[in-house]
Amino acid sequence: SFSEFPYGLILGSFPKVTYARLRDQPYGMSRIPPDASTLGPLSAQGISNVVLEIDMTDSTGTPLEGGIASYSIDLPKSDKSRPTGLVKTDASGKVRTVVDIGRCVGGNDADVFAEKDRWTHIWRTQYFEGGWVVDNPYALNTGLDTPHPDKGQVGHICHQRLIKSTP
Asked: Does residue 80 carry a pLDDT above 90?
């Protein structure tokens, strides 16, 4: 009997997530050393917010207005809830939104970290680490073309202390 096997039929174009990233808030914040995380490189670091950026097109490559994507940020050892939600793209097929991850207390101790711009700043940081995922809820299993969720690692900065700044 065919009723045992679920199937679907796609006619026309279908939505695709072509770009998904979680970014630092404020942009360029770097208080956790690259080698401190047990999860690998952190794509974003934030104190109470991070920025979610998503671009969507239809399967022909045309920017998709009103495309829906879901996201979740999981910080398993943090005392904060797990932010999740749905976002909708604008007329250019993009969404840029600030996600509130709250303020945390405690965390892992990062090694002393030097940040260099015009000056050298030495920081000591406590943080939690976790992961983020962006998924297309309308992406069906289309065989070889089935999209995989975009994902990465995030650092949630609980406390930072500037130890020293030098020119």
From this structure: no
Place of tokens 């260099």: 116
Q: Are 90 and 15 in contact (CB under 8 A)?
A: no
Q: Give percent helix, percent strand, percent coil of the chain, each to the nearest 5.
A: 5, 50, 45
pLDDT of 143 over the 60 cut: no
| Tokens coding 55 | 């671009």
- Are 37 and 77 in contact by the 8 Å Cβ rule? The answer is no
Enter the pTM of the model.
Answer: 0.82
How far, in Å, CA of 104 to CA of 48, rounded?
Answer: 8
E-assigned strand segments in 43-149: 44-46, 49-58, 68-74, 84-88, 94-100, 108-109, 113-116, 120-135
SS3 60: coil
| One-letter amino acid of 64 | L
Pairing of strands 120-135, 108-109: antiparallel
C-alpha span between 82 and 102 (Å, rounded): 10
pLDDT digits (tens, 9 = 90+) for 106-122: 999 988 888 777 888 88
Q: What is the pLDDT of residue 8?
A: 58
CA gap 28, 43 in Å, rounded: 11
DSSP labels for 23-53?
Answer: E-BSTT---S-TTT-TTSS-SEEESSEEEEE
